[in-house]
Design brief:
about 230 residues; alpha/beta; seven-stranded mixed β-sheet; four-stranded mixed β-sheet; 7 helices; about 25% helix; about 25% strand; binds zinc ion
Length: about 230
């Protein structure tokens, strides 16, 4: 796992072989946005300690959606450190293991990529302590709130921190190269609508489930990519 500073003393990216999580700091109070794969709890804990922070202060884990490369270590970390697990109401039953992971409608070029993604070990059934809705306040980041961004999955969310100009886009947007619509969508047309909504927030910094964060000309790059994506 690579630990990448995005904003000093505020925001780090934790990059796994497939997928990534983000650590947000409000002083000593910590929030994880997504939680890597099921085998990554020790690495995440090590990353927190390497920054001089305490995993005991991990207050919440916000899951952008129900996929295995995002839910992975959430249950183990929450059980060990007492963090709350938060996820959208529509993905919560999948995360808890009460419903199967929804099958995406794959485009031809996505098929081999999807098979590669399935090499990530499945996430175990994971508790969700708080079910989220569009607009809900998340209690960190000076006003972070939920932006429902369905299409990748029904309960996919973005997390917007307007005070800091930061957006976590989950897998609605990918940036392996220039920003683009994320892959493996259950409903591509809805995903495009969500892409446009997230781009419309005009963040200064955008972080993704896959690919590098955007920190320069972010709003323009997202707006251009969203406008150029056909439904
Ligand atoms: Zn995903
Ligand atoms: Zn992902």
């Amino acid at each position: 796992m690579d630990l990448v500073e995005v904003l000093p003393n505020r925001l780090h990216m934790l990059r796994f072989p497939i997928g990534q999580a983000h650590l947000w700091q409000d002083g000593a109070d910590l929030t994880l946005v997504d939680a890597g794969n099921v085998a990554s709890a020790a690495e995440i804990e090590g990353a927190i300690r390497s920054l001089g922070l305490l995993p005991e202060r991990l207050e919440r884990i916000v899951l952008t959606h129900c996929h295995r490369d995002h839910v992975g270590a959430a249950g183990e970390l929450a059980g060990r450190w007492g963090a709350q697990v938060l996820a959208h109401r529509l993905d919560a039953p999948v995360i808890r293991g009460e419903r199967p992971v929804p099958e995406p409608v794959l485009l031809d070029w996505e098929v081999p990529l999807y098979a590669h993604g399935l090499t990530v070990p499945e996430a175990p059934p994971t508790r969700v302590d708080r079910e989220l809705e569009d607009g809900d306040a998340l209690g960190f980041g000076d006003g972070a709130y939920v932006v429902h961004a369905p299409g990748h999955t029904d309960g996919s969310i973005g997390v917007h921190l307007p005070h800091h100009g930061v957006l976590f886009a989950g897998d609605c947007i990918a940036a392996v190269g220039p920003p683009m619509l994320g892959v493996f969508n259950v409903d591509k047309a809805r995903a495009v609508g969500s892409f446009r909504r997230l781009a419309g927030l005009a963040p200064r910094v955008a972080c993704f489930g896959h690919g590098d964060p955007l920190t320069v000309d972010t709003a323009a790059a997202l707006a251009g990519a969203a406008a150029g994506t056909a439904v």
